[in-house]
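Revision sheet: structure tokens.
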Amino acid sequence: MKANISILGLFFSLLFLLASCGEEDVDIYPVTSPGDSTEEFEALLLNSTVTNLTITKLMDGEQKPLGAIVALAGAPRSSAVNYTYEIIEPTTIAASAYQSSGTGSIPSGELTGQLPIMLDLDQFEIGVPEAITIRLTGSNEVGVVSSNEVTYNFAVVCPSDLAGTYTATTTGSSTDGCCPGEYSSTATVTVSGSGGSYTISDFSAGLYLDWYGVYGITAAFETDGRLSGAIVDICGDVSGTFGEPFGSNVTLVGSSDASTGVITYQWTNGFGDTGLVTLTPQ
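Predicted:
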């Protein structure tokens, strides 16, 4: 009876290890060398705690692994632990978008290994959620194989780092009678955020302050966020839709240049006012 309790305790220790992704690796068995297994009970498990994955695309023609992990509930082996798996429904990606042999292995002396599924990143739309479901089906080396099915959700993204302080030059046109038909100005704006999601401190880059001071627009509107605009940067394509102080929505479309750091965009509000803004890193 005590031996059975010990076996169950060791198994649940592995589940705790999988749930502690990112923490320092710890040995769940008092094993001095690969192959010194102290128990006969062993199993393979798909990691079901880290199922939301992000895959960064750096260039065209790139292939990268899915990043799913298979773990061994047992002592490290002196030889690789081979296994088989299958891809099942629900899966949203086409068979041509990935390479999968249906077999994999955990290296000798290790408790985990990466599932050998390679993705062709060119076949995925940037930022669009995808899903792939995997089931382990067998192993010649391990007595018990988990039959759990795990769905991994992922999206292909591009690296983005737009946060910083910029010098803004802008040219715009207002439909209001208070303001000149064509107007240019310079200002300092900040971009905050990370990972492709950002906020511009003043989307108009000074135009609202110059145009609509007569209607109560002051510098406080920038500091308290009423002139801010939320944008996303997806592989150099910048866009956003957000409100402005007079109640209409602003549509913003532009681009970012990874080599220079310059952001260029055009915005239009619900009244037909428009501006062309260039942000140059300070």
